Amino acid sequence: MEAENSTHTSEDPFMRLLCIINRKWTILTIVAIGNHEGVRFNDLKRELDGVSPKTLSETIRELDNIGVVTTVRSPGPPLRIQYFLTNDGHELHRSVLPALRWVFDKSPACSSTAVLEALERNIKK
Q1: How many domains does the chain have?
Q2: In the structure, what pLDDT confidence band is assigned to residue 108 with cuts at 50, 70 and 90?
Q3: How many Å apart are CA 115 and CA 49, to the nearest integer?
Q4: Which of 94, 34, 68 minimizes the C-alpha distance to 44?
Q5: Is 50 a domain residue?
Q6: In angstroms, rounded to a whole number, what is the distance separating the alpha carbons of residues 89 and 59?
Q7: Cα gap 120→124, rounded to integer Å
Q8: What's the average model confidence in pLDDT over 50-63?
Q9: Is 73 within 8 Å of 17 (Cβ atoms)?
Protein backbone atom coordinates (compact mmCIF):
# COMPACT_ATOMS: atom_id res chain seq x y z
CA MET A 1 0.00 0.00 0.00
CA GLU A 2 2.83 2.41 0.87
CA ALA A 3 4.57 1.83 -2.48
CA GLU A 4 1.27 2.27 -4.29
CA ASN A 5 0.70 5.66 -2.64
CA SER A 6 4.18 6.97 -3.42
CA THR A 7 3.91 5.87 -7.07
CA HIS A 8 0.39 7.22 -7.32
CA THR A 9 1.33 10.63 -5.96
CA SER A 10 4.31 11.04 -8.28
CA GLU A 11 2.30 10.20 -11.41
CA ASP A 12 -1.05 11.80 -10.61
CA PRO A 13 -0.82 15.62 -10.51
CA PHE A 14 -4.00 15.90 -8.44
CA MET A 15 -2.74 13.51 -5.77
CA ARG A 16 0.71 15.15 -5.78
CA LEU A 17 -0.83 18.58 -5.09
CA LEU A 18 -3.17 17.16 -2.49
CA CYS A 19 -0.31 15.43 -0.68
CA ILE A 20 1.74 18.65 -0.61
CA ILE A 21 -1.16 20.78 0.60
CA ASN A 22 -2.06 18.19 3.23
CA ARG A 23 1.31 18.39 5.01
CA LYS A 24 1.43 19.86 8.49
CA TRP A 25 2.99 23.27 7.75
CA THR A 26 1.78 23.90 4.19
CA ILE A 27 -1.54 25.66 4.84
CA LEU A 28 -0.05 27.70 7.69
CA THR A 29 2.86 28.72 5.44
CA ILE A 30 0.46 29.80 2.69
CA VAL A 31 -1.59 31.78 5.21
CA ALA A 32 1.51 33.41 6.72
CA ILE A 33 2.90 34.45 3.33
CA GLY A 34 -0.56 35.67 2.31
CA ASN A 35 -0.62 37.95 5.35
CA HIS A 36 2.18 40.01 3.80
CA GLU A 37 3.08 41.73 0.55
CA GLY A 38 6.35 39.83 0.71
CA VAL A 39 8.00 38.16 3.66
CA ARG A 40 11.54 37.12 4.49
CA PHE A 41 12.46 33.68 5.78
CA ASN A 42 13.24 34.64 9.39
CA ASP A 43 10.06 36.71 9.68
CA LEU A 44 8.10 33.77 8.34
CA LYS A 45 9.82 31.40 10.76
CA ARG A 46 8.96 33.69 13.68
CA GLU A 47 5.34 33.85 12.59
CA LEU A 48 5.15 30.07 12.26
CA ASP A 49 6.20 29.28 15.80
CA GLY A 50 7.49 25.72 16.05
CA VAL A 51 8.47 25.06 12.44
CA SER A 52 12.09 24.00 11.92
CA PRO A 53 14.20 25.88 9.36
CA LYS A 54 14.59 22.66 7.33
CA THR A 55 10.84 22.01 7.23
CA LEU A 56 10.08 25.62 6.33
CA SER A 57 12.68 25.58 3.54
CA GLU A 58 11.26 22.34 2.13
CA THR A 59 7.70 23.65 2.35
CA ILE A 60 8.58 26.89 0.57
CA ARG A 61 10.49 24.98 -2.11
CA GLU A 62 7.52 22.66 -2.76
CA LEU A 63 5.09 25.57 -2.88
CA ASP A 64 7.41 27.34 -5.30
CA ASN A 65 7.63 24.19 -7.45
CA ILE A 66 3.83 23.87 -7.72
CA GLY A 67 3.39 27.57 -8.52
CA VAL A 68 1.76 28.74 -5.29
CA VAL A 69 4.70 30.78 -4.01
CA THR A 70 7.32 32.76 -5.87
CA THR A 71 10.76 33.59 -4.55
CA VAL A 72 12.16 37.04 -5.32
CA ARG A 73 15.86 37.71 -4.87
CA SER A 74 16.91 41.34 -4.68
CA PRO A 75 20.59 41.97 -5.36
CA GLY A 76 22.56 42.81 -2.26
CA PRO A 77 24.65 43.20 -0.32
CA PRO A 78 23.05 41.83 1.60
CA LEU A 79 21.11 39.54 -0.69
CA ARG A 80 17.43 39.97 0.15
CA ILE A 81 15.07 37.05 -0.49
CA GLN A 82 11.32 37.46 -0.11
CA TYR A 83 8.43 35.11 -0.66
CA PHE A 84 5.15 36.10 -2.31
CA LEU A 85 1.99 34.24 -3.20
CA THR A 86 1.30 33.83 -6.91
CA ASN A 87 -2.21 34.30 -8.31
CA ASP A 88 -2.85 30.60 -7.63
CA GLY A 89 -1.44 31.08 -4.14
CA HIS A 90 -3.82 33.97 -3.45
CA GLU A 91 -6.71 31.86 -4.70
CA LEU A 92 -5.72 28.99 -2.41
CA HIS A 93 -5.22 31.43 0.48
CA ARG A 94 -8.75 32.78 0.04
CA SER A 95 -10.11 29.24 -0.22
CA VAL A 96 -8.65 27.97 3.05
CA LEU A 97 -9.67 30.96 5.18
CA PRO A 98 -13.29 29.80 5.69
CA ALA A 99 -12.04 26.36 6.80
CA LEU A 100 -9.63 28.03 9.24
CA ARG A 101 -12.49 30.16 10.56
CA TRP A 102 -14.51 26.98 11.14
CA VAL A 103 -11.59 25.31 12.98
CA PHE A 104 -11.03 28.44 15.06
CA ASP A 105 -14.72 28.61 15.99
CA LYS A 106 -14.60 24.97 17.14
CA SER A 107 -11.29 25.33 18.96
CA PRO A 108 -10.68 29.00 19.83
CA ALA A 109 -7.45 28.30 21.71
CA CYS A 110 -5.48 28.84 18.49
CA SER A 111 -1.91 29.93 19.10
CA SER A 112 -0.88 30.43 15.46
CA THR A 113 -0.06 34.07 14.87
CA ALA A 114 -0.44 33.53 11.11
CA VAL A 115 -3.95 32.11 11.44
CA LEU A 116 -5.12 34.72 13.91
CA GLU A 117 -3.80 37.56 11.73
CA ALA A 118 -5.39 36.07 8.61
CA LEU A 119 -8.74 35.63 10.30
CA GLU A 120 -8.64 39.14 11.71
CA ARG A 121 -7.79 40.66 8.30
CA ASN A 122 -9.84 38.56 5.94
CA ILE A 123 -12.91 37.06 7.53
CA LYS A 124 -15.64 38.93 9.30
CA LYS A 125 -18.12 36.97 11.38
Answers
A1: 1
A2: low
A3: 11
A4: 34
A5: yes
A6: 13
A7: 7
A8: 95
A9: no
